[in-house]
Amino acid sequence: MLEWTTIDRARQPDGVEFTLARHDDEWVVRVDGRTLMSSRMHASEEALAEEALSRVDEPRAVLIGGLGLGFTLRAALDRVGPSCRVTVAELVPAIVKWNQEHTGDLAGHPLRDARCEVVIGDVRRVLRAHRARFDAVLLDVDNGPVALSSASNQALYGERGLRACREALAPGGVLAVWSSGPNARFERRLAAAGFDAETVRAPARPGSRVRHTVFLGARRG
């Protein structure tokens, strides 16, 4: 039986340690020893982009919060035209480095696409810097509305964070949020923030009984 091989480690300023590890053809990113993402379970990450972009006509600008292993970005790039700009905001520099050096081929090297721009930093900063700019905002930050790696990430899913998302969206724009599970309180918060809210349950991988949640919010007004 093959053992897991640690490829690299990166410690954040707040002390949280990210680890990239490999077991045969499976790659994982762990946060303080807990698995945050796996290359074998990414169907729901692709659904995040598919569900959001199926609700937008001819998107010109898309913002993705969280690069992960690149599957959401790849799904978005495959569903937008040649003139669309896809911006990825990633808080952890090592995640970008690992995609460039180790895991890029898992999703067809999405960072090499000329339509893609990477911003190292908090997606909230990108949201606040752009008003009515994006046709879709896709958030796959941490473990969803209940943070796993950083409690500060929860602010993104609070009242102020959702307001920033709404203001960054163009009229008719769509917000999509990945979550490890359902969250009725977040659904209500999404509706209160000015979105027509709905949820979709997506398999972690084809045929899997494990289901993740995609929250969708169409901007009202």
Describe this structure in words.
The chain is an alpha/beta fold and 221 residues long. The protein has a single domain, classed as Rossmann fold, CATH 3.40.50. The chain has a seven-stranded mixed beta sheet, with helices on both faces. It is globular, with a radius of gyration of 16 Å. The relative contact order is 0.16.
Largest sheet: 7 strands, mixed
Counted up, domains total 1
Structural class: alpha/beta
The fraction of residues in strands falls at: 25-35%
Instruction: Identify the CATH class.
Output: Alpha Beta
Order of the strands making up the biggest sheet = 7-6-5-8-9-11-10
Series of H and E elements: EEEEHEHEHEHEHEHEE
Which features characterize this protein?
single chain, 221 residues, alpha/beta, Rossmann fold, seven-stranded mixed beta sheet, 6 helices, 11 strands, 25% helix, globular
Secondary-structure topology with pairs:
Layout: E1 5-11, E2 17-23, E3 26-31, E4 34-38, H1 43-53, E5 61-65, H2 71-77, E6 85-90, H3 93-103, E7 116-120, H4 123-129, E8 134-139, H5 159-168, E9 169-179, H6 184-192, E10 195-203, E11 211-219
Parallel strand pairs: 5-6, 5-8, 6-7, 8-9
Antiparallel strand pairs: 1-2, 2-3, 3-4, 9-11, 10-11
Helix pairs in contact: 1-2, 4-5
